[in-house]
Amino acid sequence: SRAVTAGTVIGFRISATDNSYGNATFTISGFSAPATTLPVVLSQFTATPKAGKTCLTWSATSEINTAQYVIERSQGNDFEKIGTVQANSSTSSYSFTDASPHEGTNYYRLRMVDKDGTFSFSPIKTVRFSSLNQLQLYPNPASTTIQVSLKSEHARSETLELCNAAGSLLRTRVISMTPGMNRVELDISTLPNGLYDIRAKGTGWVQSFIKN
After folding, report:
1. Cis-peptide into 101, omega within 30 deg
2. Does residue 49 sit in helix, strand or coil?
3. Cα 169-51-155 angle, rounded to 5 deg
4. Dist CA 104 CA 176 (whole Å)
5. For the purposes of burial, counting CB atoms within 10 Å of the CB of 6, is it exposed (0-12), middle (13-18) or buried (19 or more)?
6. Residue among 59, 66, 58 at smallest CA distance from 37
7. What is the percent of the chain with per-residue pLDDT over 90, rounded to a whole number?
8. What is the pLDDT of residues 21-76, one digit of tens each?
9. What are the φ/ψ torsions at residue 184 (nearest 5 degrees)?
């Protein structure tokens, strides 16, 4: 069998059992076209690192019979389920936070599940958390402030250095580190637009950001 849609041309062959010829009529009754639904159409899907976590956001422009979004993560092999968000057609805007991403490259996708169990996949987004460089910046690019996150195994002091693209030291700030993730916010509102580095002097960690 096959689905019949508008514009489909159907041919018939009729065999007579009485070996006679002549005009005949036939009637098709009980015909109904198969039900069709529009797939989920995403207007945007982003994955952003923030303070050691991954923030996922997405929006849909079409949600006909959509039941839920299953968030899946991979390190390059099989994808695993890490969460579920129920569909809400009244907003069609969603978010999910992966609080424990893997060190290295994390791949994210959405399994978009219909009410009848059928599903499709979103494009894949990539976020990397370096195991060698435990200094993270957010947002990037930034306009007025930037949040610096540093991971430490023990209590200590650390000196942050803000340098321009030429390597010239512009500012320093000493922070008291505690075991785990440490966060500090820097005011960059007066900096000219351009590329800058933030360095953790005690460890040599460096991350770049764009001021816009």
Report:
1. no
2. strand
3. 70
4. 27
5. exposed
6. 66
7. 49
8. 666 665 666 555 444 445 688 999 999 987 668 899 999 988 888 999 999 999 88
9. -145, 145
**Residues 79-116: tens digit of each pLDDT:** 999 999 999 878 889 999 998 888 778 999 999 999 99
Task: List strand residue ranges (DSSP E) for 51-187, in order.
Answer: 53-62, 66-74, 80-86, 93-98, 104-114, 119-121, 125-129, 135-138, 145-152, 156-164, 169-177, 180-187
Q: Inform me whether the pLDDT recorded for 6 exceeds 50.
A: no
Q: Which two tokens stand for residue 179?
A: 């075991």
Taking the C-alpha atoms of residue 25 and residue 171, their distance in angstroms, rounded to an integer, is 91
Q: Are 137 and 160 in contact (CB under 8 A)?
A: no
Q: Is the peptide bond before 39 cis (omega within 30 degrees of 0)?
A: no
pLDDT one-digit tens code per residue, 186-204: 999 999 999 999 998 887 7
Report the amino acid identity of residue 53. Answer: K
Q: Note whether 109 and 72 are within 8 A (CB).
A: yes
Residue with structure tokens 């849909």? 60
pTM exceeds 0.70 for this model: no
